[in-house]
Design goal:
By secondary structure, the chain is α/β, with parallel strands linked by helices. It is about 25% helix and about 20% strand. The chain has 12 helices and 22 strands. The strands form 6 sheets. Strands 1-2-5-8-11-12-13-14 form an 8-stranded parallel beta barrel. Strands 15-16-17-22-19-20 form a 6-stranded antiparallel sheet. The longest helix has 18 residues. It starts with a strand and ends with a strand. The model has no long low-confidence stretch (mean pLDDT about 95).
C-alpha cells in the first residue's frame, strides 16, 4: 500500500524557522523522501485559519478557499499567505510530488469553523453567536443557519470546543463541502484527504465525497481517504461500516488502538510481547482499511504525550506488518530517526517495506520477551521475517518459516545502546531456522 508521511507537526513553521515558507521547505525534501520509500505526503489544513491567538495550524478554519490569496486573518498587516505559504507555492508542491510519482493528501476540517466576522441572533437559542462568515474569497460564505442548532435537523451531537459546529444537513453546507473537495482535487492537485475529527459529523458526508468522480488533466483521480476517528476498535469499526457499506471507493481510519499498544511497548516496563499477537486493532481486524502510525501532531503533552523511549521498536512493527504505515515528520527529521544510509533508521525500514513487506502475516513465535513473524510475500515483494526482542540480552529463537532452503539476510536492525552486527540465517529444507534480535531491538530478515 506504500508508506505515508505526515509532512508537518504542531507549530512546525516556527520550530523550523519556515514561517510562511513550509510548502517550499517540504519541496526541498522530496527527493530524499522518494528515495527513502515514502510514497505519499499528508499536508496540514491549507485554508486560512482564524489565527486568533497568532498564526495557527489551520484547524480553526475561516476561509476554505483562501490558500494565501487575501490579506485577511493574518497577524502581520498586509500579509496574504497562510502560515505555510501561498496558493502558488502549494500548487507547485503538489506538482513536484506528482513528478516523483508520489501522492499528496490534504487535511480537511469539516466539523468546526472559527473567526466569524459578526455576531448573529440565533432564534432557536435566543442568543447572539459568532456565526456570520463573509470571507474575501466570497465562496462558501456561512450564516447562522449553517451551524447547529439551525432550522435543519441536528445530525450529530459531538462538538469541538466552543467553535460553531457546521450543520452538514443544510444543503448550503453540504454543497459547499462537496464543491470545496472537488476544487482541492481538480484545481490544487490533491489526491485525497485526511478527515479531521470525524466523530463530529455524519459519515455520509465523507461517503458523498468519495462517491463522486474527479478528473485532473483529463485523467480520473483515484481518491484516497482516512478518518481521524480517535476511539476504540469497536467505535472505529462502526464508523468504517457506516462510511464503506455499499461504497466503491473505501475509506480507511487511523489505528488508534494499535498506537496505544505500541506506546506501551516502548514506554511501559514489563510489557508482554504476547499483547502484539492479540486482536482488537485495525491492523489485524481490517488491515486494508488500517492506517498505522506511531505519533502525530496531537500527541505532544498533557494527557496525550508522545512516545518517549525506544520509538524505533514501534516503527519497526508498523513498517513490517500489514496496514498503510504513516511516518511522522518530527520523528524522521527533528528527532533524527530517519538515519539515511544506515540500517537502524526509518529510511531503511520504509525501503524494506516497499521491497519486501507483501502478503499475509504469520506469527512464528511469541512469548513475553520475544516475538517473531513473517510476511508471506506477494507479487514483486518476496516477504520477510521480523524478530523483536524486549529483554536486556540478545535472544535467539528457532522458528519454522515459509522460506525453505533460502538464506535470510539481515535487511534492517537496531539494538538498545549496543553495537550489533546480525548475520545471515540459513533456512533448512523444512523451513526451520534460528533468528535473533539484540536487546530491546529488532532484526528484519529477507531473501
Amino acid at each position: 500500500m506504500g508508506v505515508l508521511m505526515q509532512a508537518f507537526y504542531w507549530d512546525c513553521p516556527r520550530e523550523e524557522q519556515q514561517e510562511f515558507a513550509w510548502w517550499n521547505f517540504v519541496a526541498t525534501k522530496l527527493d530524499d523522501l522518494h528515495n527513502a520509500g515514502i510514497t505519499a505526503l499528508w499536508l496540514p489544513p491549507a485554508g486560512k485559519g482564524a489565527n486568533l491567538g497568532g498564526m495557527s495550524m489551520g484547524y480553526d478554519v475561516y476561509d476554505y478557499y483562501d490558500l494565501g490569496d487575501y490579506a485577511q486573518k493574518c497577524v502581520i498587516p498586509g500579509e496574504k499567505r497562510t502560515w505555510f505559504g501561498s496558493k502558488e507555492e502549494l500548487k507547485a508542491l503538489t506538482k513536484a510530488v506528482h513528478a516523483r510519482r508520489m501522492k499528496v493528501y490534504a487535511d480537511l476540517v469539516l466539523n468546526h469553523n472559527n473567526g466569524a466576522d459578526a455576531e448573529e441572533f440565533n432564534p432557536i437559542l435566543q442568543q447572539n453567536r459568532w456565526t456570520k462568515f463573509t470571507p474575501q474569497s466570497n465562496i462558501f460564505t456561512r450564516d447562522w443557519t449553517c451551524f447547529n442548532p439551525s432550522p435543519y435537523m441536528e445530525m450529530d451531537d459531538v462538538t469541538f470546543g466552543t467553535m460553531p459546529d457546521l450543520c452538514h444537513i443544510n444543503p448550503r453546507v453540504s454543497t459547499g463541502i462537496l464543491n470545496h473537495a472537488k476544487w482541492m482535487i481538480q484545481e490544487i492537485g490533491f489526491d485525497g484527504f485526511r478527515y479531521d475529527f470525524v466523530k463530529g459529523f455524519g459519515a455520509w458526508i465523507v461517503r458523498a465525497i468519495h462517491d463522486r468522480q474527479y478528473t485532473r488533466d483529463n485523467v480520473i483521480v483515484g481518491l484516497f481517504g482516512v478518518g481521524e476517528c480517535w476511539a476504540g476498535d469497536a467505535f472505529i469499526d462502526s464508523w468504517l461500516d457506516s462510511v464503506n457499506k455499499w461504497a466503491t471507493n473505501r475509506v480507511g481510519a487511523f489505528d488508534f488502538p494499535l498506537r496505544y499498544r505500541l506506546k506501551d511497548l516502548c514506554d511501559t516496563p514489563g510489557f508482554s510481547l504476547r499483547t502484539l499477537a492479540d486482536g482488537g486493532v485495525l491492523m489485524k481486524d481490517r488491515p486494508f482499511e488500517a492506517v498505522t502510525f506511531v505519533d502525530n501532531h496531537d500527541f505532544r503533552d498533557g494527557e496525550t504525550p508522545e512516545i518517549i523511549n525506544d520509538k524505533m521498536l514501534a516503527y519497526a512493527y508498523i513498517l513490517t506488518h500489514e496496514g498503510y504505515p504513516c511516518v511522522y515528520w518530527k520523528d524522521y527529521f527533528r528527532y533524527g530517526l530517519g538515519k539515511p544510509g544506515e540500517p537502524s533508521g526509518i529510511e531503511k525500514l520504509a525501503q524494506v517495506h516497499e521491497s519486501h513487506a507483501g502478503g499475509g502475516t504469520n506469527i512464528l513465535y511469541v512469548d513475553d520477551l520475544f516475538y517473531a513473524m513473517e510476511r508471506t510475500g506477494a507479487g514483486d515483494q518476496p516477504g520477510l521475517v521480523f524478530a523483536l526482542n524486549n529483554s536486556g540480552d540478545v535472544l535467539r529463537q528457532r522458528v519454522k518459516t515459509g522460506f525453505p532452503g533460502k538464506v535470510l539476510k539481515p535487511l534492517a536492525w537496531r539494538g538498545k545502546d549496543m553495537v550489533y552486527n546480525p548475520q545471515p540465517v540459513t533456512v533448512d529444507a523444512e523451513g526451520w531456522c534460528e533468528v535473533e534480535a539484540p536487546r530491546r531491538g529488532y532484526v528484519v530478515y529477507g531473501v
